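Why Dirigent protein? Reviewers of the renewal asked for a concrete example.
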Amino acid sequence: MVQNFAFVQGQFNGSTISLLGRNSIFNKVRELPVVGGSGAFRFARGYAEATTHTFDGTTTGDATVEYNIYVLHYY
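Here is what the prediction returned.
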């Protein structure tokens, strides 16, 4: 899975954090590596923990997922 988190206000406005890894949705908690970013998060490294709280796999495919991101960056 490739995922970018974009900041649209505050101290990190315009910066992004990029995740890349396998997202095994049936695991309670998944770990995904932070592989970089842009702006304040250029050369960022770390990991994200994803936890699914709700998932409707039968009708809409909607899910509510919490991401806790732990990142080291040079600012």
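The chain has one domain: 2-72. This is the kind of structural detail the renewal will allow us to pursue systematically.
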